[in-house]
Amino acid sequence: MMEIAAGAAATAVTVPPLVFIGVFLVLKKLSGRSGISLRLSADMTALLFMISVYYMIDLLWGMATGWFIFIGFLSVASLLTILQWIVLEEVRMAKVLKQTWRFHFLVYAVLYTVLAVIGLFII
């Protein structure tokens, strides 16, 4: 049973777009609403994309990028907090964290795609 769970986790980290599509299809079937399903799917799979990009960079170039991911997350959150304070004169931390999380989903989904293509030519 542990082998099946380990295999599923390894597949999820290795191919997060498949997990994203699967989660999206399940949520769309349950809710019937594409927009909400897309946002929830992005929220649920963002961490998989981050982990996958971390390991792809480590595999391709032997660099540990954990601190860069952490600092990038904090930098984007800080920037969005300042922008929200300037525009709305009020900071809603839940909204800032949600925007930061979704922004990082987009960044890491693009990075995953770029690194997958690079990996095809390097390895």
UniProtKB/TrEMBL annotation:
InterPro entries: DUF3397. Signal peptide: none annotated. Keywords: Membrane, Transmembrane, Transmembrane helix. It comes from the Bacteria. The chain crosses the membrane at residues 6-26, 38-57, 63-88, 100-122. This is DUF3397 domain-containing protein. It comes from Alkalicoccus luteus.
